[in-house]
Amino acid sequence: MSNTSGMVLSIETIVNAPIEKIWKMWSDPNDIIQWNTASEDWHTPRAENDLRPGGKFSYRMDARDGSFGFDFGGEYTLVDDHKLIEYRLGDGRKVKIVFEEVEGGVRITEDFETETKNPVEMQQAGWQSILNNFKKYVESH
Known about the structure:
With 141 residues, this protein is α+β, with helices and mostly antiparallel strands. It has three helices and seven strands, in the order βααββββββα.
C-alpha cells in the first residue's frame, strides 16, 4: 500500500563543479554517507547504491543520539548518465532528478512525491536541506 499523497514537490540548487564530479559524488556510497543528512543531528552510517535501471539503493539514516533511525531505499527506473535519474521508493513514491549544465555549474532539480506521515513543509525543507548539504560537500572537496 502506498502512502503517497500524490502531491509533487520540487527543489533545486546550482552546484559549482563539473558534472563528472557531481555525478560521482551523488552515486558513490563513500560520498553519500558524507552528505546525506538534513541536519547535524543526523548521519548516514551506511549506504549501498547500484546506479542503473533495475538497480537498488539503500541508506540507513540515524539520529546521532540514537533515538531514532530508518532505512531509505528504492529501485532505479531510469538512469541517463550525467543527465537524469528516476527511481521509485520502497513505499511507491516516485522521484525524478535532473542534472543540467548551466553557467556557474550544474543545476540539480529534484521532483518528489510527498508522503502522508509528515507535513508537506517539513518534507520540502528536509529534502532541500539534504540537497544543500550535497552542494556544500561537493564544493568543499
